[in-house]
Design goal:
The chain has 292 residues and is α/β, with parallel strands linked by helices. It is 27% helix and 34% strand. The protein has seven helices and 17 strands. The strands form four sheets. An eight-stranded mixed beta sheet has the order 1-16-17-15-12-9-10-11, sandwiched between helices. The longest helix has 15 residues. It is globular.
Length: 292
């Protein structure tokens, strides 16, 4: 089992964490926001957090997620970061949402590098990659930067618009955008006998499709994995599975791949996160992945 913190990304840093909060630098700006898994004590006093931050997210009293950002003067509500690896790069827009998210999950940088390395080493002329629950498109951009043909699926239209803006800001093009429920889409792709060299899955614990379709991770992940096993080429292919439910371990992600996709020589699995300046790793999700 691996522990993979964000490494070698000049535009991102976890400065400190603790007391159910985290202090992060995104480019030139430092943000202070809640983090339910930072159950330890922070290293810096809150007076220092207050001095250095540019924006802080405050939760509403009756909500676990929703709230508002308090920005210091001259702090923008949007700006861009650049991610680069192995000579490939792309840009993503930071946007301060009412649910404390900012449009980027920095811990996914390790998977972006993995996607670029896998597609580059495969040396296929036109590899096809399917990105499910694709959000603002970090994995889609990584695959497209590595010259893959990318199908990007998400159920939220404004998020698709955000991802398209990221593509344009990166100087990339020709990603196929699909606003649809992910499970419904892969069922149809199986019937159409489509195949992909790469599949990326980043399912939430709970969600809704554009027509009200209900997604519950524990109830639907098995069927989703079964469909993906039928869409993936038997050789020269890869899959990345991320899970963010706090009740799911990396072993569960590994077992799902082992159960539905075979034969495999090796499955990488573990935790993704970020290490702060005081050498504490903040776990932010689990993953399992393979290439064959």
């Amino acid at each position: 089992m691996q522990l993979l913190p964000v490494n070698n990304w000049p535009d991102y840093e976890l400065i400190d964490s603790g007391n159910y909060e985290k202090l992060e630098r995104f480019g030139k700006f430092i943000l202070w926001r809640p983090e339910p898994q930072a159950v330890w004590r922070c290293s810096l006093p809150h007076e220092e957090w207050n001095r250095v931050h540019h924006g802080r997210f405050l939760k509403e009293e009756k909500s676990d997620e929703k709230g508002r950002w308090i920005l210091k003067p001259s702090t923008p509500e949007q700006w861009y970061l650049t991610y680069g690896h192995a000579g490939k790069s792309f840009r993503m827009r930071i946007g301060l949402t009412s649910f404390r998210h900012v449009g980027i999950f920095p811990e996914q940088a390790e998977n972006w590098s993995y996607i670029i390395d896998t597609l580059t080493s495969a040396r296929l002329q036109h590899p096809r990659v399917l990105n499910l629950f694709a959000y603002t498109g970090g994995a889609s951009l990584a695959a497209r930067a590595a010259r893959a043909e990318v199908v990007h699926v998400d159920s939220v239209k404004p998020v698709i618009t955000w991802a398209r803006q990221n593509m344009e800001a990166s100087g990339l093009d020709n990603i196929v955008w699909v606003v649809e429920d992910a499970l419904k889409y892969v069922r149809r792709e199986v019937k159409r006998e489509k195949r992909y060299q790469g599949i990326i899955l980043d399912p939430p614990a709970y969600g809704r499709g554009p027509e009200g379709e209900k997604w519950v991770l524990e109830e639907n992940i098995a069927e989703l994995m079964h469909c993906c096993s039928q869409l993936l080429y038997d050789s020269g292919s890869f899959l990345v599975l991320n899970l963010y439910s706090m009740g799911f371990s990396a072993v569960i992600a590994k077992n799902l791949i082992h159960d539905y996709i075979a034969p495999l020589q090796e499955i990488e699995f573990g935790e993704l996160g970020a290490s702060d300046r005081y050498k504490r790793m903040l776990p932010l999700g689990v993953f399992a992945r393979f290439r064959r």
